[in-house]
Model the fold of this input.
Amino acid sequence: MNKSIQLRGIIFAGLAVILGAFGAHALKEVLPADRLPIFETGVRYQLIHAIALIVLSLVTQNTWTKRAAWALTIGIILFSGSLYLIATNSILPFTLGAWIGPVTPIGGLFFISGWFCWGMAAYRG
Done:
């Protein structure tokens, strides 16, 4: 078991629950209607991959599982984080540039990479 990976998963899962509640209650009143589903997508992907990190922490660790854990972690930060920023852009005290748009698919590539690495860990394990 890898406690570092497990702790990351637990923290991300807890934050997903907090952000989901925040989105459902506080943001519902202030965000344009078309932006709330974007925020909810970020929460959903964060929670799914947080649970994946927790499960990954319980399997036999090797180079591929560690790569998978880092890829999933970076994916959560980039994919979900960029969706949170995009969704709340209208209420942020600063302006987001055009740079934020490509961050989401880069985060998605990290998710794909993480699942691929986990598959390699299973194949070689």
About this structure: The helical segments are 3-30, 36-58, 63-87, 100-124. Residues 3-124 form one domain. Residues 3-30 form the longest helix (28 residues).
